[in-house]
Amino acid sequence: MVGHWECSLTVGILIPYCKPTMDGHAVPGKVALGNLEGLSMTFARLLTSSMWVAPLLVLGSVAVAQEKAAPNPLDAITPVTDEMLKKPADGDWLMWRRTYDGWGFSPLAQIDKTNVKNLEVAWVWSLSNGATETTPIVHDGVLFVYNYGDKIQALNAKTGDLLWEYQRELPQELIDAGGNNLAKRNMAIYDDKLIAATSDAFIIALDVKTGQVAWEKQTADWQKGWRYTSGPFIAEGKIIQGMTGCGNAQPGGCFVTGNDPKTGEELWRVYTIARPDDPKGGDTWNGLPLESRMGGSAWISGTYDPDQKLVFQGVGQPYPWIAEMRGTLPVKDGKNNDALYTDSTMAIDPASGELKWYHQYLKDDTWDLDYVYERQLIDLPVAGVDKKMLVTTGKLGIIEAIDRTNGDFLWATETVPQNVVSAIDEKTGEKTINQDAVPHIGKTTVNCPADPGGRGWPATAYSPKTQALYLPLNEFCSNTTPQPLDPGQVYTGGGRATYDRVPVPNSDGNIGRIDAVKLTDQSQMWSHRQRSPVTSAVLPTAGGLVFAGSWDRWFRAFDDETGDVLWETRVNNAINSFPISYEVDGKQYIAVAVGNGSSAARSWATLTPELLNPDGGSALWVFAVSDEKKTAAN
User: Which key words are in the record (predicted)?
Assistant: First the structure.
């Protein structure tokens, strides 16, 4: 039997030689640096404190066996098909809001109301510092995450181990400018490719197993201000991608493209600003020529109805924000100033790019009150008749439902305090505007809310379990002051207005809200109110939970029926992203990214100056119920 070991380093090499002091047989093997049982204390200190790292050749059966390497999930990852996108596995998260209908709902129920109190950190992965607004994609045990500054990583979704990394070489001018333009909200996965939009206005495809570039296609010239902040999704075998950056005085505004996923070739382009010869909306710009029509950013990913084969894309506001500056006010005799297709839903055929129909929510927007956000496809009765609804909520916080077969108005209901719309016609949805809230050059106007909205880009979500819409909301108003152009000055970009954000009149000091609204009758189920702005999307699950995070770094799980807080933890930075849930080897996980820098979150945070966060510390947090606590609960 072996007594003890004597080890020494051979001169000129970094492999120690060890021999037993009693009879024994030499058996080669490896030992991890943190697992040194059986070696002399002198050698143990040498291994753990020296500046070199080397493989160890250990003799004798007393050495601890090397741990078997965990299997690489990339080895078994399968191509993503159209059928998978239509009906994803419960444990996968294959697109921005998980499913084509835009619900943002997880069918996983392992983590529920009874055991969520045992939720704890499974693993954490540091991300590139900056505005972190990402939605991870998870497929076959691999998690893909888009870091700030165009770094894409593949991680083992069970352990958090890095599998591969892609870093785009961006122009230094873009890197130096920083800001929200280097943040991305989502990616797409299709076949054996991970598809992303970049800060320098390319669409790229990466091999899911290696991270190597399969192809890349430039869509626009980033030096003219074109940008991507949202990512693509796949519909009918086409890459659907919306463009932003059209507030930089780009004539004709933004567009949506359809690309070939095999080559990246652009197949069609739909403009979000109506051309003068467009029969649907060409005459809605108060007589302005094309070069004076600006805006219409498609800066949030759309949704898709496979039955109708229609893509539903939200469109943002016109530029400059102030109507008097862009020339759509005052309205000229015999002219229309609706400014299509801004603040609209565009229903697009993904095969051809044909615009089938549109529905405009806010005509001639002069407040920066986008209606660009997620479109949710929900089938429920309206006045006793089953309807195929498309539900969306703009910055005004007004939930609006239209018929997704033709764009007809169905109903609307308000949430946060607002003074822009004084009335909504119950039959047509036509809005009556409060003229006192319309900004004018040379005046300061109070409007509630203004940018970044009573609800911003953090997404709402729908649960079929409760038939409720869950909304992240914030209450505030602003003193809006237009910044007029000097005589002879040419507009070169920007909103041309200053917003001094203030609490709503008679506020109790609470800014953030999470509401649950029953969509069968538009009644409020519950409303959670708090001091801190709510800055993340919401995630309802089949376990009866709703997850959400806020500026003050708290991540919480709410009871989906009552709004009671069932679990909470404080993370290291602001939560400005889209939480998801996934499953690996029969275990459910909750993942959420954190990181300061989001322009919307920083805007809301001016209302709570006492709540401070670090600039650094972007990370991906992943939570689960430990096996021990799961067993104990059972």
Answer: Oxidoreductase
* CA–CA dist 539, 532 (Å, integer): 19
Residue in this structure with the two tokens 């009758």, named with its chain if needed? 521
pLDDT at res. 633: 56
Q: What is the C-alpha to C-alpha distance for residues 125 and 572, in angstroms, rounded to an integer?
A: 12
| CB of 588 closer than 8 Å to CB of 111 | yes
List the domain boundaries for the chain: 1-68
Beta-carbon contacts of residue 589 (< 8 Å; ≥ 6 apart):
122, 157, 581, 582, 583, 622, 623, 624
Residues of the chain with pLDDT under 50: 1-66
| pTM assigned to the model | 0.89
How far is 178 from 459, CA to CA, in rounded Å? 24
Burial of 511 (0-12, 13-18, 19+ CB in 10 A): buried
Of all residues in the chain, what percent are helix, strand and coil, respectively (each to 5)?
Answer: 10, 35, 55
Those residues with Cβ within 8 angstroms of residue 87's Cβ, 6 or more apart along the chain or in another chain: none
Cα dihedral 553, 123, 576, 538 in deg (nearest 10): -90
How far apart are the C-alpha atoms of 582 and 547, rounded to whole Å? Answer: 14
Cβ pair 520, 527 in contact under 8 A = no
| Cβ 410 vs Cβ 389: under 8 Å | yes
CB-facing half-sphere around the CA of 564: CA atoms within 13 A: 8
CA distances from residue 255 to 242, 275, 352 in whole angstroms, order as listed: 6, 12, 15
Torsion angle, alpha carbons of 432, 393, 471, 298, to 10: -140
**Contact status, residue 317 vs residue 342, Cβ threshold 8 Å:** yes
Distance CA 99, CA 351 (A): 20
Cβ distance 307 to 367 under 8 Å? no
- Nearest to residue 197, comparing CAs of 216, 212, 179? 216
Only one residue has tokens 């679990």, namely 567
Strand partners for 445: 480
For the CA atoms of 234, 236, 239, 243, what is the dihedral angle to 10 degrees? Answer: -90
Tokens, residue 584? 């690996």
Q: Which residues pair with 596 in a beta bridge?
A: none
Instruction: Give which of 601, 613, 607, 532 is closest to 131, Cα–Cα.
Output: 601
Is 450:477 a contact under the CB 8 Å cutoff?
yes
CA gap 62, 44 in Å, rounded: 15
DSSP E strand boundaries for 32-157? 119-126, 137-139, 142-147, 151-156
For tokens 């005589």, what's the residue?
Answer: 487
Q: How far is CA 171 from the centre of its chain?
A: 24
DSSP one-letter code for 422 = E
Q: How many residues does the chain have?
A: 634
Side chain identity, residue 314: G
- What is the C-alpha to C-alpha distance for residues 537 and 547, in angstroms, rounded to an integer? 8
**Using an 8 Å Cβ cutoff, are 533 and 511 in contact?**
yes
Helices (H), 226-360: 323-326
Residue with tokens 């400005």: 576
Instruction: Name beta bridge partners: 388.
Output: 379
Spatial separation of the C-alpha atoms in residues 444 and 373, rounded to whole Å: 28
**Can you tell me the distance from the alpha carbon of 406 to that of 383, in angstroms, rounded to the nearest whole number?**
18
Question: pLDDT tens for residues 249-261?
Answer: 999 999 999 999 9
- The C-alpha atoms of residue 59 and residue 70 are separated, in whole angstroms, by 25
